Amino acid sequence: MSVLDLTIKELQEKLNNKDITVTEIVEATYERINETDDEVQAFVTLNKEEALKQAKALDEEGINENQFPLFGMPIGIKDNIVTKGLRTTCSSQILSNLDDPLYDATAMQKLNNAKAINIGKLNMDEFAMGSSTENSSMKVTRNPWNTDFVPGGSSGGSAAAVASLQVPFALGSDTGGSVRQPASYCGVVGMKPTYGRISRFGLVAFASSLDQIGPLTKTVEDNARILEIIAGQDEMDSTSANVEVPKYSEALTGDVKGLKIAVPKEYFGEGVDEEVKTSVRQALKVLESQGAEWDEVSLPHSKYAVAAYYMIASSEASANLARFDGIRYGKRAENAEDMMDMFKKSRSEGFGEEVKRRIMLGTFALSSGYYDAYYKKAQQVRTLIKQDFDQIFEEYDVVLGPTAPTTAFEIGDQIDDPLTMYANDIMTIPVNLAGVPGISVPCGFHPENNLPIGLQIIGKHFDESTVYRVAHAYEQATDHHKQKPQLGGAK
Amino acid sequence: MSKISKDQVKHVANLARLAITEEEAEKYSEQLSAIIDFSEQLNELDTTDVEPTTHVLEMKNIMRKDEPKEWISKEDALKNAPDQKDGQFRVPSILD
């Protein structure tokens, strides 16, 4: 078995016992990337030289696991998380020359402090806008289970890299499902924590009231171990919450007796694949056999979430992406006649189609005469969606359903149809609008295409512990997370 | 009849500092109209007296201490700039 198939705990034990060196672990990641990334296309930029240098330094220093909880752990980073001195592009042409960023995102800084090793930057839909990673201006990432299919998005590079054992852990970001949906499509564990749980400093902003960083891993326990390192209030992000960070890894007791699960009927409606429904209902039975109780409930405003989301997210994006002006960093168009011409040419050449479409939509929704009808209306609907969750969580501990309505779709299938593409996020978007935490864990494979299916578990604000506990109890009773895609030859 | 006309698209593109061709204006007119049509379903909901949610957590005016501290140097700030001169960002002419 590859060292890349081990958990954080197992790797730390091997390091402790001197069965393995950090250099060997890091070399194994680059060998695996070398073997598989022609097929998968997950990485945009590798950090090989620096990573091997750090590995050598850690080997000389020796492990002290109590002091450095992620000592020598190789991790891949979504390319919208700023990494000092390592190219950060958001998979956009406008940042394709940003070779030497000036600082580390807070989450990256915390990983560095815990002595994790950054293996490289992972592909994504440009500026995190998309559900398939086809909107990258760098490359199209492929689903490791079948490379004719998308890995999901926008953190498609992160999910595909973890699923294909290139790196055991990765960071993604989730604005409307961008960690959970690719985790579902690629058969890995992906967590979107509570809004405010992780500092957004250095996460290139898409929709500031929705964006959260989240870990993607093969197991729930590894996921919890990474979140407990990167969470916490940060003076560089005024929206990061002053709420204590529990040791999530200690919440994984396996005990779900008496746990109350709400199952919204809206998450099993039209457009949701029958096999997906069956897998999720089976997962429910597993939890029931472990002592949990469940009821069918209603989140009546769910069907409005996608429309509200696209107004809110696009509006915020149109403001956030105004900063890309070709002056301070990033690409500037040549042959501009004057300043205005330079702005327009740089932005038009630098942004891809989907990004421009959302900037246009957001600018329209915020423009004089339309603001109340579109943007404010969407924010009022957001309140109703949030209240749906508030009411359910008065009685229930978690909400459970599918992560996505279907398994992964074929590359090229939806790219020309924005509204169909948006519908992939119908069950993940409400979670961002309400700001609550949600995780996707593997819960089976589709019998026709053999692609992974994801189970979504949603919790109360700042109650990631319960979400992890339920996810872990389910995972331990099943073996879906142990399945591996065949890469490097036979499919 | 499109919800967003080609002229409106051009106006919005100017506000967003995007240069668009006639063809793109046509395409955006169709696509944005479709998305706006889709969003009209929100009007099925009566939101009279519903407060808009701009932020999900109840917190405001979080400030850090107003103390000077080390940050990036001028050299660093300029090193990713497309054009610079005499320690400043250089841009095309603003006035004739």
Automatic annotation (TrEMBL), chain A:
Domain Amidase per the UniProt entry, residue ranges: 24-467
Keywords, ordered alphabetically: ATP-binding, Ligase, Nucleotide-binding, Protein biosynthesis
EC annotation from Swiss-Prot or TrEMBL: 6.3.5.7
Keyword DNA damage among record annotations: no
InterPro entries recorded: Amidase, Amidase_CS, Amidase_dom, AS_sf, GatA
The protein's role, per its UniProt record: Allows the formation of correctly charged Gln-tRNA(Gln) through the transamidation of misacylated Glu-tRNA(Gln) in organisms which lack glutaminyl-tRNA synthetase. The reaction takes place in the presence of glutamine and ATP through an activated gamma-phospho-Glu-tRNA(Gln).
NCBIfam families: gatA
The name this protein goes by in its record: Glutamyl-tRNA(Gln) amidotransferase subunit A
Native source species: Alkalibacillus silvisoli
Gene assigned in the entry: gatA_1
From TrEMBL, chain B:
Record's keyword annotation contains Nucleotide-binding: yes
Catalyzed reactions: L-glutamyl-tRNA(Gln) + L-glutamine + ATP + H2O = L-glutaminyl-tRNA(Gln) + L-glutamate + ADP + phosphate + H(+); L-aspartyl-tRNA(Asn) + L-glutamine + ATP + H2O = L-asparaginyl-tRNA(Asn) + L-glutamate + ADP + phosphate + 2 H(+)
Cell membrane is among the record's keywords: no
Biased composition (Basic and acidic residues): 75-88
Keywords: ATP-binding, Ligase, Nucleotide-binding, Protein biosynthesis
Enzyme Commission number: 6.3.5.-
Region annotation Disordered: where it falls in the sequence: 75-96
Enzyme class, first EC level, given as a word: ligase
Matches recorded under InterPro entries: Asp/Glu-ADT_sf_sub_c, GatC
Assigned protein family: Belongs to the GatC family.
PANTHER family linked: GLUTAMYL-TRNA(GLN) AMIDOTRANSFERASE SUBUNIT C, MITOCHONDRIAL
Subunit record text: Heterotrimer of A, B and C subunits.
Function: Allows the formation of correctly charged Asn-tRNA(Asn) or Gln-tRNA(Gln) through the transamidation of misacylated Asp-tRNA(Asn) or Glu-tRNA(Gln) in organisms which lack either or both of asparaginyl-tRNA or glutaminyl-tRNA synthetases. The reaction takes place in the presence of glutamine and ATP through an activated phospho-Asp-tRNA(Asn) or phospho-Glu-tRNA(Gln).
NCBIfam families associated with the record: gatC
Protein name per the record: Aspartyl/glutamyl-tRNA(Asn/Gln) amidotransferase subunit C
Provenance organism: Alkalibacillus silvisoli
